[in-house]
Amino acid sequence: MKKWLPKVRLFTLFSFMALLLAGCGEPFVSALRPAGEVAKMQYDLMILATLIMVIVMAIVAVIFVISLVKFRRKKVGEDKIPKQVEGNHTLEIIWTTIPILLLLVLAVPTVSATFKLADVKAMEGDTRDKDAVVVNVTANLYWWEFEYPDHSIVTAQELVVPTDEKVYFNLIAADVKHSFWIPAAGGKLDTNTENVNKFWLEFNSEKTEEAGGLLYGKCAELCGPSHALMDFKVKPVPRADFDQWIDKMAAAKDAEHVPANDVATAGEELFTSNSCISCHAINPGEKRPTAPSLANFGDRSSIAGKLEFSKENLKDWIKDPESIKPGNKMTGTYDNKGLSDQDLDALAEYLMGLKIED
Questions:
Q1: Do 106 and 194 lie in a common domain?
Q2: Residue of 99, 168, 242, 299 with fewest CB within 10 Å of its CB?
Q3: Per-residue model confidence as pLDDT tens digits over 93-102
Q4: What is the pTM of this model?
């Protein structure tokens, strides 16, 4: 027994740590804090299913305890055999009917919600709603591209959507299977390379305000060494603000970016000479299949989807992206090892100036 004691203690410690750490993190990176209609429906279904399971388990546990107490050997004796109920028609009907009723209680709202969530007529063909917001999402190793086809606008890593209305999504993957998931807004949906999956989400304005105006999205399908780092941010804003953002992005398509100072100008030259421009678009009207668009990079809230947005973090990312996000496609595509501190300062100054917000 003594030799097992350290292992038991270690197991208990790790179990306690796992339970403790499970409660850490951002409050709205959880399906248990719904911030939209879809998430609320799915949350209600989880509560219903859990409630049914708890009731069934409680009833079974009570019957089990009663049987242990009432028919324990010490009380009824060695040779006492309780009355057998095998073949009792009444009991057979009861314990056949109850599970069927419980399944119906769970199945009816589940099927109803499934059909409701699958209704994407407002984004298709003759039933298309001209005011509906449609976003084409492309999942890549390990970043996300967001295209607004009605406005010919492309951005990456940060999804801007209007609040309190349905937003429709076309989902596809560029390389391997991924899964699009915004825990606070709704359940995940796979992104495949061979077909487009469609669904809709709704972002509640009050809950978004509680979350500080920013929700979190993740890849929910194991896709490689940096799967856990394949994050993106969601900025739900009022429809008027969303329309203004669209107008600014559209205007930026026809405007030439002018660096703010000499350092940023030097960074622009480095950006071009190091062939960064061949992988990254800086115009919101252009797409690159190889790397995220940087058209409004200066407006983002994070670097590489995971680092706090700061000049130092940006310099660290440019200098050694592999140490931050292993397996990313940026590693080895340019001479990052040959960049001096002055070069890094210039590139960071230029990139942080790529913005469309005032």
A1: no
A2: 99
A3: 888 899 999 9
A4: 0.84
